[in-house]
Amino acid sequence: MSKIRIALIEDHDLTRVGIRTALLQKEEIEVVGEAANAAEGLKMLKMLQPDIAIVDIGLPDKDGIELTRELKSTSNGEDLRTKVLILTLRDNKEAVLAAFAAGADSYCMKDIKFDNLLEAVRVTYNGNAWIDPAIARIVLQQAQQNPPKQDKVSLDSKNSFNTFESGENPEHIDAYTLTERELEVLQLIVEGCSNAVIAERLYITVGTVKTHVRNILNKLCADDRTQAAVRALRSGLVG
User: Quick one: CA dihedral 62, 65, 36, 44, positive or negative?
Assistant: First the structure.
């Protein structure tokens, strides 16, 4: 069985050592490199091409969102091997959406429990999005209280992003296009649940979950679970 190759980009030495020590408790994981800033981190990722990059959002030279955007843009349309798991203390809606718009695959809080971090790593490695449940709840609450009035949301005055392709409007995603069961599955996708966990919670087979996920992606015109989750959160479809 091949190991999950992980690179850590975190400027706080104690935090980085703690994450590395925790991850190395599992034989399935190999930490292949570490960096304390974005510049060194990008060079390392391009050279090592790990399976997962765990990236702190608050790096000293540029934030983890910008690092993610630069990393994803270097793929030039090719299949990028490295998946990005953002690690942060910021639990606001704008930061989460900015991270996914930049191409992040998963999003975790720094105070995440070790078992949940392992789950996030495994889910991300398997090609699915993992969103910290605490973050998902906050985003869902804000989406319900403040329905989006426009496509573009700004993280700050210098860093604006648009999660949707040009011409798309999240308000045009109608809940009636999804069945009740598909909405339930979508809710769990947003919470970062794997197909196996969704099957367990809804008392259905993994095969049925895969069918629902495929239908959801088709109906939301999403390329993957991450994009579907972002669109669901932006449009207030779930919650």
Answer: negative
Which one-letter DSSP state was computed for residue 91? -
**CB 131 within 8 Å of CB 107:** yes
Q: In the β-sheet with 52-56, what is the strand arrangement from edge to edge?
A: 29-35, 4-9, 52-56, 83-88, 106-109, 130-131
Please state the pTM of the whole predicted model: 0.62
Mean pLDDT value across residues 145-156 = 40
Q: Compute the 3-state secondary structure of the chain and give helix, strand, coil in percent, each to the nearest 5.
A: 50, 15, 35
Q: How far is CA 69 from CA 86, 183, 238, in A?
A: 12, 30, 27
Chain-centre distance for alpha carbon 196: 18
pLDDT in tens, 51-76: 999 999 989 898 898 999 888 887 65
DSSP state of 236: T
Nearest to 104 by CA among 79, 75, 67: 67
